[in-house]
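SAMPLE LOG
Freezer: B-3
Tube label: C17
Construct: single chain, 129 aa
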Amino acid sequence: MNAAAEMSGTSFLARHRQNIAASLAHRLEAARAANNTRLVELLEQEERQLAAEYGRRDPSSPALFRGLRHLWQSLKEVLAARDELRVRQWVDGSGMVWWSVQDPITGERLCTHSDGELMDWIEKHCRDQ
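STRUCTURE (predicted):
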């Protein structure tokens, strides 16, 4: 998106938010003038929800940048974990414990009920790298 379009999109959003805030302020004033406490409560709740929403969606919000940094860090961790051995344990219908391990790089796989055999496979695999 070019800078002009981004700027007009941002200013449009800001104007939209200002219009919503002005409308809400007007409705709150009218509800207070009519001593309608239930409506005042509901409109104040709406005001809090909008304030929270604006804080999350504001493109310049530090919370947004923190969220994006956290998302990027999580993505890096997931991508790094793609090369790690995948070990899984489950219990079959007769109560026997089974282990499965797979190397995502070579595709090698072992399925066993012996945890000793599993550990030997992992140790051998780690030495080979």
